[in-house]
Write a structure and sequence with these properties.
This protein is of the alpha+beta class and 235 residues long. It is 30% helix and 34% strand. It has 6 helices and 15 strands. The strands form 4 sheets. A 5-stranded antiparallel β-sheet has the order 1-2-3-7-6, covered by helices on one side. The protein has a 5-stranded antiparallel β-sheet with strand order 11-10-9-12-15. 37% of the residues are buried. The structure holds uridine-5'-diphosphate.
Length: 235
């Protein structure tokens, strides 16, 4: 499968049209950004690591009945995917309080939530991805109430699959962001699931093993990403 034209260059990935009109190739880069592009850098081998992690996770979710855009891992940095018409909603699911939940609502970091919280954000960098509810999403024409409900339901199912899967690998899944898209009338999980889009804490030590190491200048960023990759690929 060949890269034909560059369709889009994002912060962490390039998206290429593939030979087949229904397929695209996601090329994972080492570039890292945080705080809506205000902090920029590079994490050695991040692209290779995230492609490996996301590919493994898409296979696991697919085997468990979650429809995803994943077709195959082509090589170290390239993933072949079904072409999506992206839904401009970022769906964040939280099991433990961290990040903006702490900043916005005053939860103590590490508070275990009584049930997972699912949040919707408008995918719009110019507006700083504002938090929104179903009414905003429908009023903005991003989808129907049924579709938005379906995204939330899919996020909850995915969370219920990921939490025990990561727990077996001694990782606590604190929170994560998902993106979805439409393909031939079906809503599929898209984008990636990786330490760029999830918070992982080591189950025993509580050490942060995700992009927070980059965001907060904690050091050991590459080692944290490799450690997640090692645990994800080992079984
Ligand atoms: N997240 C993401 N992309 C975004 C915003 C958030 O992948 O544009 C992920 C983030 O890595 C974390 C979860 O979504 O795992 C919740 O992020 P939060 O709202 O706490 O925002 P942050 O503190 O990262 O600004």
């Amino acid at each position: 499968m060949n890269k034909i034209t560059l369709l889009h260059e994002g912060k962490a990935k390039k998206v290429w049209q593939a030979d087949d009109a229904d397929l695209i190739i996601q090329e994972f880069k080492d570039d890292a950004t945080a705080f809506n592009n205000k902090k920029k850098g590079s994490i050695a081998d991040k692209g290779v690591t995230n492609n490996a992690i996301a590919s493994r996770l898409f296979v696991m979710l697919g085997e468990n009945g979650i429809p995803t855009h994943f077709v195959s891992k082509l090589n170290d940095r390239d993933m072949l995917c079904k072409k999506l018409d992206i839904v401009l909603i970022e769906v964040v699911t939280r099991n433990v309080a961290a990040g903006s939940l702490v900043r916005r609502y005053g939860f103590a970091e590490g508070t275990v939530l009584p049930k997972p919280i699912v949040e919707l954000y408008l995918k719009n960098d110019d507006l700083d991805d504002p938090l929104m509810n179903e009414d905003h999403a429908v009023a903005l024409g991003l989808g129907t109430y049924e579709e938005v409900a379906q995204l939330k339901e899919m996020a909850e199912k995915i969370n219920a699959l990921l939490v025990p899967w990561f727990a077996e690998r001694h990782l606590r899944l604190v929170d994560f962001k998902l993106e979805f898209g439409r393909h031939k009338g079906e809503i599929l999980l898209g984008d990636e699931i990786s330490p760029d889009t999830c918070r992982f804490w080591d189950a025993e030590s509580g050490e942060k093993l995700d992009k927070d190491r980059f965001r907060l200048d904690l050091g050991g960023v590459e080692d944290a990403y490799s450690e997640v990759k090692r645990r994800v690929l080992e079984q």
